[in-house]
Specification:
By secondary structure, the protein is an alpha/beta fold. Helices cover about 30% and strands about 30% of the residues.
């Protein structure tokens, strides 16, 4: 199945060979899952011109502005190393499997939150499957009132670690997140959540965790 790529208002379809050639032309590949407005991808693509930085999000509308900026001529600020894939995690293109030297998920909610924290095993496997052997996964996670109906109000970071350990990952860092982490993720919501706190949302009283895990095995069972 072709990948759907956002370029502003346009959606283009590309095949696996095109993606493989594009990835091979870069030193490494990173994938931001649930990319939202894509601002983090623009920032990283600017900072890492030798890296192919892929945004993946189910909403084309959310990616329009950032993908249009990236599609400009490089002389006008375009970023040919930024790619915007329109797809939900549950329909992640097979071409992305094992491609990410780094995979990030920043402040997910709903089904993506369930996958990121190990509550939905199939989704967790799909997310883990995007990470290359030797690559790493970076999660910034917090539950919010909108997740209460799904029971994800309190997060246990060590249960999350255990879920990924069973998929061949080992933790590199597990700690409460800071405002600086939210700033680096280009998340306005994260900055509001963490303002004036050390990993605990002042308004919600919910902990926000940063977890970094490295994929140390190729087999995921």
């Amino acid at each position: 199945m072709p990948l759907r790529i956002a370029r502003g208002r346009r959606l283009e379809e590309v095949d696996a060979a095109w993606l493989a050639d594009t990835a091979a032309a870069h030193r490494r590949v990173s994938i931001d899952v649930g990319a939202g407005d894509g601002r983090y991808v623009l920032q990283r693509a600017t900072a890492e011109p030798g890296e192919l930085v892929i945004a993946m999000d189910a909403s084309h509308a959310g990616l329009r502005e950032s993908s249009a900026r990236a599609a400009r001529d490089p002389k006008r600020g375009g970023l040919p190393n930024a790619l915007f894939v329109v797809a939900a995690l549950e329909a992640a293109p097979a071409e992305l499997l094992g491609l990410g030297s780094m995979v990030t998920v920043h402040f997910p909610w709903g089904t993506l939150l369930d996958a990121a924290i190990g509550r939905e095993a199939a989704g967790t496997r799909r997310l883990a499957g995007l990470v290359a052997s030797g690559g790493w996964l970076r999660l910034l996670v917090s539950a919010h009132q909108r997740d209460e109906r799904q029971g994800a109000v309190s997060l246990d970071p060590y249960s999350i670690v255990d879920a990924y350990r069973s998929l061949g990952f080992e933790p590199l860092e597990v700690r409460l997140a800071t405002v600086d982490d939210a700033v680096a993720a280009r998340s306005s919501w994260g900055k509001r959540l963490l303002a004036g706190s050390h990993g605990r949302g002042a308004a919600t009283g919910r902990d926000t965790w940063l977890l970094e895990l490295r994929h140390v095995e190729s087999a995921r069972g």
